[in-house]
Structures are given as structure tokens and as C-alpha cells.
Amino acid sequence: MATMITSRGLSRLVLLLTLVFGAFVAQAEPILKIRTTEFTRFNEVVEFQSSKSYNARGMAPLYEITNRVIDLFVDENPIPDGYITVQEGAIAPGPNVSDNNWGPLLKQYWAILLVAALCIVMIAIMPIMGLCLCCCRCFGGCGGRSQPFDKKHDTCRRAILGFLLICSTSALVFGVVVAFVTNSYMQHGVENITTSARHSVHDTRLYLQTTSSHIDHVLNKNYQELNNDLKQLLHDASDNIIKRLENESKAEKLTTLYEFVEKLPGIKESLEKMKQLTSELRITASQLNDGLRGVKRELLTSLNKCGTQECIKVMDDYKIGRLNVNGIDYNSLPDLSQIIESVKQLTDSSLGSAIHQGVDQMNELKDTLRQTVLQNIPKVQAASDSTGKAIKDVSNMLTTRLSNVADTLGNNSYKHLDTADEYIEQYSIYRYYAGLGISSVLLLILMCLVFGLLCGICGKRPDGYGDDCCNKGAGGRFLIFSVAIIFLTFSVILAVALASFLVGTLTRRAACDSLRDPANDQIISYVDQFVDLNRLYSDLRAQAERSRAKLQVSENMEPITIGEVIVACQQNETIYKVLKLNNFIDIRTIRDFPEHYGISRELEALKEKIKIQSVQILTPEATEDIKALRESKLNDFDVDKFTDNLTFNITEYNLNEIADKLREVANRVPSGKEMNDIKVNLKNQALHLSSYQTNLVDPMIASTNELIKLSTTLDTSLKFGEPSFSAAIDKFLKQIKEAEEYINKNGKTFVQNVTEELVTGFTNQIYSYINLVIESTENDIGLCGPVYNVYESVIVASCNRIVDPFNGFWAGVVWCLLLFLPSIIFGVKLSTLYQKSDPYPGPMVESEYLYDAYTERDNIPLASGPKNKRRKKQDRRRESRDRREIYYEEGSPSHSRDPRYNDMAPK
């Protein structure tokens, strides 16, 4: 039992909660269907010119290696702590400078100092070393004067030194190519830097202009869209309130009833028309019936006398014996005289004026509501226009500032870029020629080494008169020439390379690396301290507070740094977030505009003024008149008596069809005196039938159609969708009483609820727009991606296209200089070996040659007169053959020398 009680109580609780929730949902359903404003989106398509695409054209590995080398010499923090102090607008020496504490600085840059010291030493000693080598060779040493014979291992030395010099020269080719290519790339980058800068300025201005247009679109155009919808909403407010009140109270039934009463004269005319049509149908049907009986009698007589098969067939097919008005009794149609008289009495009574008084009461109520709303609409619209003007002022202020920045950027940039173009065109060519000169020197040295190797390896030995131009002696001279050029230019090229190394390292670390990682870079942090954007923002914030701007500043000032700005741009944040504009223009304070400019106040005043008074829709006299209408003869109108007793088939067959068939049969009746009479009779009856169809049947069909249409329409007008006219009037009377009761009891609350919903919808529309402004400003307007693309394009144009080739140039030059050092040694050694004209003769001849060389050194003639020239040329021709045969013959045991040529010196 307890279980049953508990279950029953739980069921009731669930039912109660369901009803309460259903009532809550029904109450929560909005009364007015307020349309939400659909704001147009800003979708302007902009094409930017800056590009961060870059093609190293085969030099990327060299640039990467060069940057890795620079990283070995430069620390992540290039300036140790304590050496400089950066304050706003000033840079001062740090405490370590005043204390002469240079240890940390030397410790960090010892590698660069060591390289610089070594380069300075090399710059100083290389000319001295070249001079010493030159003097040594002039005095016959250092390979300046060599034996004509190879020593025992000279062939092996030539091979090894030649291979080493080939390796050195092959590696030198890379350095020379790098020098030429990077010098050309660097010149191309310098010549196009202003073009990239112009693209950057153009894109920055275009970005500012687009941002300005976006601000104007959101703060001006979108607000105009909102304002137009709000004005339309206010304009339709009274009609919407009245319409909803009528629908809720069903007071529109009074209007429907009044319209029906106003149509009573028309109903009377329709009834009279129906009465007339009914009378005409009765008369016409009687005439038709009489005529058809005569035709039927004549046709039966003639067709029976005819006796042909066709006559019998016509009589059977069209049932001539039953030719009549299809059995319709038009006398059964109702008489509308009493209904017409009843309608006439209603028309002449005070029914219309009584209902009209109720209609006037409702119209007065509507006019009061309408006037109340219309009187307050201008105030709400004025407050809305003031808010729009304030928002437009903010838009104009922001767009004007952005336009000024864009104009200033353009006016102050292009003229400087034009000046830069002039300087680049005038002076950059000298730098290019200087690099080209250094590269050409390197190429000249390379060519001398290459020709020296080619002649030394592929050429013949030098043998005096008639030597080839590319023999080994020429190869030796090419090598000595390359060594001489190296000594003459080494110091200058090294000095240029050292200066380029220092400048390139400083530029790459101070500019390129800082720009690529601004958030964590020491130099950028020093720039932040030097510029101090926070101080600038503090001044702007103070100006904004004093200027009584439409938008207030934020409560707390957020610090800002250049690194944060660049990183925010990289993340494609809006200009509002990137520059932290809330420090002096807080867009969220736009939420206070409706309250500040009186929109909320005027809407509340409108809500308080919209009220309705009690009404009496129907007086007792009007009620009695309506009851009299209910009891009128209109209740006796029965549309079924017309629709059931009327048909469009007046005759069973169309009379014209029968007449045509009779004419056809008459034409086929055989000739004869009696048959001719039958033929004439058939044609006469056919003529009668055609006349009846045209003059009687067709008008009866038209009258029937009109009568059915009038009866159906009248039935619809009288019943209003109810089973009967009296039921419809009872329902009208009940609904009008309920409407009067609803307006008097619940009308005030309902109107207040509708007004509250109107005001709430109006307010929500405004705040939805404000939220759109805040959302667009913080997340959509002025996305900074294009500016970061400009930033990246500047880095590419300066660092990738100028700094990287600049560092690649000195890297290629240094590579060549390092290879010059072993090349000097290999070149001097090989030049000496290439000058020897005879192969290794053996140890005995070598010792004899050495002795002869020492004994005959004092017998060298100092001069030769002109008379001995011819003899010298002849001797040179005789000795032009290979002397190795003599030495080989002398060294052989079977050779017997002429005593005249024996050496007389004591052994």
C-alpha cells in the first residue's frame, strides 16, 4: 500500500513538474519575432607586392657554412654585461669600461682578435717574404739557377709536387668561382634593394589603407545597417503590439463580424440575384419541356414512318421516346423571399452602428498605443543617432590617423629611396669593380698555375734553341709568375678579406640575427631600452585621458616591446593587439555608449509610457442586435438544396448533336412523295432542337452555374467555417466577450510584456553590434600578417641577397688565400724542377758535371762582340740536338773518347 501511495505521489509530482516546465517554456517563447540584423562582412581583396621568396642559386650550402663559421666567433649575447648602459635616447659606457675591466670582452672575442692579429702579421710579412724570395733567386739561390740535369729523385718530386699543386689548384677553382658569383649576386642585391623597399612601403601603405577601410566598414557602414533596422523596428512597433494584442485577445473577430454586417447589402443582392435566377430557370424549363414534347411527338411519327435502319438506329441511340428536361424539378428550389426580407430588416436595424461602436473602441485603443509609440520614437532615434555619431567620430579619428601615417610613410620614404637609387647607381659600381678586380687577380693567379701545370706536365724539357712555347721551362715561368703575383697582391687581398670578415660578421650578428629572432635577442632589447615605447605610450595615454575621447583608456597599462610587436605580427594578430592600443583606446568601453548617449534611458521611458485603458467592446444593445442576427432567417439558407437539385446536364443528350444526326439521316432518306414529307419533317425538328439548345438550354446552363457559385459563396460567408450560421454568430459573440475580458484583465500586462520584449530586442540588437565591433577590432581588423610579410621581405632583400653574398665573397677570397700559401711552396719547387733540361745521367756524370761547373765558373765570358753572333748561332744549331746521347755514350764502358776531349786536370 505504501508503495502504491509513493508511486502515485511520484507520478503526480512528475506531472506537476511537466506542467510547470511547459508553462515556463510557453511563457519564455517570444511574442514578437524580431529579425536580427545581418551585417555585411568586409571582404575586400588586396594584392601585396612584397615577396619573401628567395633562391640562393646554388650558394645555399656556402652561406650556411659561412654562418656557422661566424657563429664560432660570435657569442649569442654579443655584448657582455657591464660594458654599455642603454637608457632612453642615450648610450653610456658601463662600469667595466670605467674600471678598465676588459677581461670578459677579450675572453669572448679572443678568436676574432687572434684571427685579426694573424692576418695583420701576414699582411706585414708577406711583402718581406716575397722580397727575400726575389733577392734569393736573383743571386742564384732558391731555385733561381739550377743544374740542367735532374737529380736522382727529381722525377718523383715533380710527380708528388705536381699532384699536390693540382689538388691545391682544383680547390682554388672553387674559391675563384665563389668570388665571382657572390660579387655578382651582391651587386644584384644592392641594385634591387630599393625596389624591395618600394614594395615594402607600398604594401605597408596598402595595409594601413585596408585597415582604415575595414574600420570604416565596421564602425560606420555596419552601424548604418543596424540603425536602419532599428528605425524600421520602431516604426513597426505600434502595429506589431496592436496586432499581437488582437491575436492574443482574439479581438479581431469583432472586425470580422463588423465586416460581415457591412456585407449584408451585398448578401441581400446575392440572394435577390439567386431568386431571380431561380424564377428564370423555372420559366425556361417549362418552355423547354413543352417544346421537347412537341419535337418528340413529331420525331416518333416521322421515324416510325421512315422505317429505314438508320431511322430506327437514331430513335434507339438517342432515346427519342424519353426526350425531356432530364427529370429536373426546378420547383423544388427554395424560395428566398423570407431570407431576403430578414436581411433587409437587419440592414435597416441598428446592428451595424452597434458593432461599429465596438470597432471604434478598439480603434481608439489602437490609436492611443500608436500615438504613444510614435511620440517616443524620435527620442529613441535621436539617442541612436547620437550613438552612431560618436561611433563614427571614433571611426574617423582612427581612419584619419592611419591615413596620416600612410601619407607620411609615402612622402618621407619615396624621396629617400630615389636618393638611394642615385647613390647606388653612382657608387655601387665601384664596389662591384673592386670585387671584380680582386676576383680577376685570383683568376689570373689560377690561370698561371693552371698553365704552369699544363706546360710542366704535358710539355717537353727545355733544350735551348728552338724550344716549344709550352715546354716545361714555360710552365716553370708561369708558376714563378703566379708566385710573384701572389706576393704582390696577398697583403692587399688579405686586408680586404679581413675588413670584409669583420664588417660581415658585425652586420650579420647585429642586424640579420637580431631581426630573425627579435624576441630573444640582446641587441633588440637594447633597442627597446633606447627607444622605450612604454614612455611613448605613457605620453599617448596621458593625451587620451586629457582629450575627453569617445573611447576611454584601459585601467592598467600593458608594457610593450619591439620584439613582442614583431612576434605578434608573425602570429597574424590584429593591429589592436599588436600595438596594444588598449593602452590609450580601450575598445571595450564602447559598451557604455548606449547608456552614455541615452538609448537605454529612452527605451525605459517608452516602456513606461505604453499603457492601455479598459474598453467596452459591445454594449448590451449591440449584444441583443447580434443575437437577433443569429435568430434571423439566414439560418434557413441551405446550400445543399441548390447543389443537389441543380445540374449542368439539362438534357440527357446535347440537342445540337441530335439535330446534326437528324439532318444526316434526312439526307439519306430515299426519294418518294411520302418520304419527302418525312425528310422535311426531320429537318424541321432538327431546326427546332438547335434553336432550343441555343435559346433555352445554354442560358439555363449559365444560370445554373451562376446560381451554384452564388449559393456556395454565400454559404461560406454565412457559416465562417462553422456547421451553421447561428453557431458562427455564437462563436463570434463568445470570442468578442472573451477579448473584452482579456483586454480589461490581462491587456495591460500583455502590452507591457510585448513592450519589454520590444525594448529587449532593440537593446540586444545594439549590443550585438557592439560585440561585433569589439570582436572585429580584437580579432579581425588589421591582421598583421601582411606587415610581417613586408618585414620578412626586407630581411630577405638585405640579409639573404646582400649580407650572405658579402660573407660568401670574403669566404671565397680567404679560401683562395689559404690555398696560396702551399701553392707558393709547390710553385717555387716545381718551377726549379721544370727548368732542368736533361734527365738524371747517373752518379758519375753528375759528379763530373759538378766539377766542371765549379772549374768553368770563372771562364764565363762577360761579353760577346757582334762579330761572334753568327758563330754563336751556328754553335747553337749544332748543339740543338739532345745532349743526353753524349753523356750516355760517355758513361758507357765501350765508348773510347778522343784524347783531345779528356780532362787534363789531375784526378
From TrEMBL:
InterPro entries: Prominin (IPR008795). The chain crosses the membrane at residues 109-139, 160-181, 432-457, 478-503, 808-828. The keyword NAD does not apply. It is a multi-pass membrane protein. This is Prominin-like protein. Residues 1-28 form the signal peptide. The keyword Signal applies. Its main location: membrane. Residues 859-907 are annotated as: Disordered. It is found in: Membrane. It comes from Anopheles christyi. Residues 876-887, 895-907 have a biased composition (Basic and acidic residues). GO terms for cellular component: membrane. It holds the Pfam family Prominin. Belongs to the prominin family. Keywords: Glycoprotein, Membrane, Signal, Transmembrane, Transmembrane helix.
